[in-house]
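Exercise 7b. Backbone tokens:
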């Protein structure tokens, strides 16, 4: 989902690149820039997040096998950093993690790659000032504002390969990392699939009826639209329908917090009177295959790893492993900015 969420923070002081991380030989945590305690579990991290730790923008590594989340690096700060806008974080199809840090005055964002091998951040230069950043199979798609346009680039060298203009504002967008498509929803309640290589925009005649769509995912060149209706209940009902145009997930008695697709599974984090639950649906027949309760008070994002699903909230991350219904909640070292 596109977001312009604002944050408040202590102004980050200027740091030198040499202070980004502890030495690779360190076996225990050490003190990094701004006094942030840096861990060393780079190899065990299956996912990364961005959080504010001690007034600094820190890269958090999550190891769901060990049940840990620790600061691994501090993003270098500059005098023109825009602390009022949340930074971007994307995971590319080839396994790279890219951080985009906003700057004041609409200046281009600063971009870094999280280098697991070297245990540090690598500067990638500047990119467009962003409202959203997405990764498809072979492209990065930058959205400078909610009204577009889409700036499509090659992640290898950062060069812009195509600009795609859309007719309306984009409150919703999601990328398919297994194809070069971006699924988008507009303020007008219309939906499209964008081929980011050719620039072709294909309208999607989604049959949503009176459903208020609040989030979407993108898979196999088709959008998965999810929304809730009716008053919250203790046992919300979920129904999924599919046609040639789109998949629609309807929640009766609850509200979706996040949605993601992995293989043949649609995962929805939903809120109801019962709290926050993760519900898995079969993409083929729409049947509910698993429902797991969590201790979270909300979900900011939902991410798939080799161990299972990670549900990020402001202060913690819940690990829902592939087998069973046991959920482990891990405290984050600071408030989440991007998961």
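Sequence design result:
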């Amino acid at each position: 989902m596109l977001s312009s969420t604002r944050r408040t923070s202590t102004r980050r002081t200027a740091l030198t690149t040499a202070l980004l991380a502890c030495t690779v030989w360190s076996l225990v945590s050490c003190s990094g820039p701004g006094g942030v305690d840096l861990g060393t579990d780079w190899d065990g991290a299956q996912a990364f997040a961005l959080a504010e730790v001690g007034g600094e923008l820190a890269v958090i590594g999550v190891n769901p096998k060990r049940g840990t989340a620790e600061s691994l690096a501090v993003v270098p700060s500059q005098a023109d950093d825009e602390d009022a806008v949340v930074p971007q974080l994307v995971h590319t199809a080839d396994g790279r993690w890219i951080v985009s840090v906003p700057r004041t005055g609409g200046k281009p964002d600063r971009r870094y790659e999280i280098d697991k091998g070297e245990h540090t951040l690598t500067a990638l230069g500047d990119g467009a000032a962003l409202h959203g950043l997405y990764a498809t199979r072979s492209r990065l798609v930058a959205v400078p504002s909610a009204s577009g346009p889409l700036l499509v680039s090659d992640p290898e060298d950062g060069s812009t390969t195509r600009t795609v203009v859309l007719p309306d504002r984009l409150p919703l967008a999601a990328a398919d990392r297994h194809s070069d498509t971006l699924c988008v929803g507009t303020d007008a309640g219309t939906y499209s699939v964008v081929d980011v290589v050719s620039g072709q925009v294909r309208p999607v005649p989604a049959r949503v009826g009176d459903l208020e769509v609040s989030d979407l995912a993108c898979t196999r060149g088709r959008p998965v639209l999810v929304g809730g209706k009716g008053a919250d209940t203790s046992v919300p009902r979920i129904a999924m329908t599919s046609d040639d145009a789109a998949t629609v997930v309807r929640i009766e008695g609850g509200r979706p917090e996040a949605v993601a697709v992995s293989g043949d599974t649609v995962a929805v984090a939903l809120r109801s009177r019962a709290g926050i639950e993760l519900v898995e649906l079969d993409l083929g027949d729409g049947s509910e295959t698993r429902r797991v309760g969590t201790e979270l008070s909300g979900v900011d994002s939902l991410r798939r790893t080799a161990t299972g699903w990670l549900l990020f909230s402001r202060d913690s991350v819940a690990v829902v492993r592939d087998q069973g219904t046991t959920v482990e909640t891990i405290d984050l070292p600071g408030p989440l900015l991007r998961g």
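Instructor comment: The two ends are 12 Å apart (CA to CA). Confidence is low (pLDDT under 50) at residues 3-28.
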